[in-house]
Amino acid sequence: MSFENIANQIWLFIEKYDGVVISYIAHFCFAIVIFLIGRTIARFVARQLRRILTNRHVDPTVVKFVSSLSYYAIIVMTLVAVLGQLGVQTASIVAVIGAAGLAVGLALQGSLSNFAAGVILIIFRPFKVGETVVINNQKGDIDSIQIFSTTIVTPTNEVVVIPNSQVVSANIINYTRLPERRLDLVVNVGYNSDIQQVYQVLRAAVNKTDNILTNKAPTIRLDLLDASSMNFNVLVWTLNANYGSVKAALLENIKNGLTENGINIPYPTMDVNLNSQS
């Protein structure tokens, strides 16, 4: 076959299939562009999430996991779009991914609920590392916020690990989020005590105690006439850091003041009547 015949055959092939070839080339180029754009977006989102979570002082393990999860999720969606651009039927692929996701979700239902709860804790931040909280009747300092659980160190140096799903569903008491805290004391005195004298003793004890905030006036009031005592409320404000020392000092000053002024603190009593029969 001569060179001229070969050239004619090539030309005829190009004339017959040039539209198809150009279409495939165009789709392939668009697929590459889609992949590059998707990968750029995935890197940008992962980097921004890593920066935001790091600035919020989130646990490094959570930061790495969340950023990696977002990156690969966007990459998977990008690959599906690339395959669709190349003419591959993606409906079946999406169905397979959905079925696999459902199966994994059912198998890891508890773990996924803990993970979702961990994401909620990261977003809404009801507490952070170092704060003192009560969760599920467990009081202690937050040691770490992991992907699936939260760790608390109790005042007796016990480590308590609570699943995040239980943390989210529980009532959370955060003692240290606000800088100031009110100290509430109940002082019981006998009914033979003079009320005005008791007020004077309690005010003197408050004024004698250091680190009580003066910008919020203390409250001293008769709150309850109990079965065997009159109950007075003593409400003062202090900084969170001084709460324990102020409580101890105020209790000591109140006890000393009551003793010096002859005001008794009644003990629970019970009257027992014996009937003698002849």
**Separation of the first and last Cα atoms:** 145 Å
Number of domains: 3
User: In terms of per-residue confidence, which ranges show pLDDT below 50 for 5 or more consecutive residues?
Assistant: none
Strands in their spatial order, largest beta sheet: 4-3-2-1-5
Number of H- or I-type helical stretches: 7
**What share of residues are in beta strands?**
15-25%
CATH topology category name of the largest domain? Helix Hairpins
Helix and strand composition category: alpha+beta
How many strands in all?
Answer: 8
Gross morphology is elongated
Rg over CA atoms, rounded to whole Å, is 36 Å
Helix and strand pattern: HHHHEEEEHEEHEEH
The largest sheet is:
5 strands, antiparallel
Rounded mean pLDDT score: 82
Summarize the amount of helix as a percent range.
40-55%
- Judging by the overall fold, what is the CATH architecture of the largest domain? Orthogonal Bundle
CATH class of the largest domain: Mainly Alpha
Give me the secondary-structure topology:
Elements: H1 3-55, H2 60-85, H3 90-107, H4 109-124, E1 132-135, E2 138-145, E3 149-153, E4 159-163, H5 164-169, E5 172-174, E6 180-189, H6 195-208, E7 219-225, E8 230-239, H7 243-260
Protein name: Small-conductance mechanosensitive channel
Domain Mechanosensitive ion channel transmembrane helices 2/3: 69-109
InterPro entries: LSM_dom_sf (IPR010920), MS_channel_1st (IPR049142), MS_channel_C (IPR049278), MSC_TM_helix (IPR008910), MscS_archaea/bacteria_type (IPR045275), MscS_beta-dom_sf (IPR023408), MscS_channel_2nd (IPR006685), MscS_channel_C_sf (IPR011066)
